[in-house]
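User: Could you go from structure to sequence for me? I need the amino acid at each position, not a summary. Structure tokens:
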């Protein structure tokens, strides 16, 4: 899905590869805040730290953890090409990893795809060493995707509750973006979600897609006006195992 309206990311500005830049620009309003969050997490990760990218798929953020002992995970039914090549292939609620063996777990846009997120977070708690950190992102507003395995959307309080029940402390949850950016991204998503059909209306659908792109660009420019951030695309969160 092409997002378009957010403007290009230059690898020299962020020091990221062309592959990661392309990945982010596919859905820029959604992925730019996630990239910024993962960059923050990576910058705080000590050299040699044992890191698991849970539900990594094609592992787009691998390069940010070159300084760490970075491993990937995905599950046997992953829709991502890279899933089958993951270092650990298993269900996220039953990982074949030793207790207290990791210092960081990264989990981006994964918990909506697991039927029992509480079990997954308990498993994360089990394999993190005391003082280890979990860094995750979850959606609040997004269309159905990766069906049939699309189960949940999350609020700030919902994330806090799940992390607390799993035993985590020092929990910090924050919205990733403002409401205007959310609306802009949804308009871009609608261009593809409407689909096509042999009903003679596809020319009108193309006109609608052009209109949606223009409206998205206009809405995105209103982002500085939103000071409450109560309709984000989703949340970012960090938590620590005591």
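Assistant: Here is the amino acid at each position, in order:
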């Amino acid at each position: 899905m092409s997002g378009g309206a957010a403007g290009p990311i230059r690898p020299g500005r962020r020091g990221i590869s062309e592959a990661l830049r392309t990945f982010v620009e596919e859905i820029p309003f959604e992925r730019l805040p996630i990239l910024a969050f993962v960059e923050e997490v990576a910058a705080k990760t000590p050299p040699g730290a044992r890191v698991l990218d849970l539900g990594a798929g094609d592992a787009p953020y691998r390069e940010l953890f070159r300084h760490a002992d970075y491993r990937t995970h995905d599950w046997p039914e992953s829709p991502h090409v890279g899933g089958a090549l993951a270092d650990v292939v298993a269900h996220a609620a039953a990982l074949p990893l030793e207790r207290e063996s990791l210092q960081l777990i990264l989990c981006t846009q994964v918990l909506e795809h697991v039927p029992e997120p509480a079990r997954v977070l308990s498993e994360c708690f089990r394999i993190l060493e005391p003082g280890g950190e979990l860094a995750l992102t979850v959606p609040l507003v997004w269309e159905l995707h990766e069906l049939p395995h699309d189960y949940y959307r999350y609020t700030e309080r919902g994330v806090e509750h799940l992390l607390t029940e799993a035993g985590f402390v020092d929990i910090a949850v924050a919205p990733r973006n403002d409401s205007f950016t959310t609306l802009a991204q949804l308009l871009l998503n609608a261009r593809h979600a409407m689909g096509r059909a042999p009903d003679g209306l596809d020319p009108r659908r193309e006109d609608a897609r052009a209109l949606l792109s223009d409206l998205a660009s206009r809405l995105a420019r209103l982002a500085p006006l939103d000071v409450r951030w109560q309709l984000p695309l989703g949340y970012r969160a960090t938590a620590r195992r005591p």
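One structural detail worth keeping in mind: DSSP finds seven helices and seven strands in the chain.
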